[in-house]
User: Fold this.
Amino acid sequence: AAVLDEMLPFLEGQALQPGEHDVYFQPSVSDETASLFEHCARALDGSLTSGPHGLPLIGTGDWNDGMNRVGEHGRGESVWLGWFLHATLTAFTPLARARGESERVARWHAHADSLRTALERAGWDGAWYRRAYFDDGTPLGSAQNEECRIDSIAQSWSVISGAADPVRAAQAMSAVDQLLIDRDKGLALLFTPPFHRTSLDPGYVKSYPPGVRENGGQYTHAATWSVIALARLGEAEKASQLFSILNPINRTDTRAAAHRYKVEPYVVAADIYSVAPHAGRGGWTWYTGSAGWMYRAGLEAILGFQLEGKHLRIAPCIPAHWPGFEVSFRYGTARYEILVQDAGTEVIGLEIDGEPVTGGLVALVDDGAVHAVRVVLGEGARSAGRATDVAS
Assistant:
């Protein structure tokens, strides 16, 4: 909360003219200041757009800036952005409520509700969720498309957002597992098939050769979201297996593999090519976006180490053959030595310094001491809410 109350200036610059998609200029720092929360809130206020299907406008690109011509005329829509916006609105609504922003709370809540309805009505394709709609209403990421029939991020965020129908979300991730994760090649594709001969013009993503970068290669940033989604669904084996596929060290365990991969095995590559003759070749390395998300996927989704303010929740999703694991966590001057034992689906026991704790949360205290935390996992009825938790 203290961070969100920090006062910051804005940047000022010229507005885009009709027909302009972008412009390069040197912005100036404004005299006006506002809290960091207000900066975030204004960004959300400006994101409450809707196209013909009730979905957010994609404009000249969303997460995938290579899809810069899907909505360049102002009517194209993004299914993925619908999930992402829903998650963001849901996360910020309590912050707005705590600040007495009742008008924003009402507006954001209403928009999130309408988004959920539109996403199920216009986003569902029958076996997975579509990716977007072009300006003319043509769907993208649909079984009716010859290329880019399924895109991973629309499926992963249907789970991560917590907004999707649970049965559909599980089916969507099953489609990701079947159609986008190539275990023989050790690749998790962004979408398939790559753009090559289609008459559709999604943007500069199509200018890449098939299987290179965003054009149907592995885009690691997106693949880490699939790890998180699988863990949210309780698919421990699949989440761990996909994490292992993404781990760069596993791409250089033989001389032949190292020659195929060609880049450093000790950093995360943003992309890996998927089509011969370059299948398995690493692309842009030292890419902090992918590295950060991969760290979160391993630590938070699989190991279940989740900070919630001044509390720690430990909710692992680990494979059955794991005996457990240990984590050493420094909190200010204190240190928490965490031992997780066994590999069940639920936490059945939690102790701090030998004393049992109920509620599943570890209260963190900056007291200079070393605290022993013991977590015991076991089999049980998995919480129905696990697949619908919103990403922190």
Remarks:
- The longest strand covers residues 370-378.
- The radius of gyration is 22 Å.
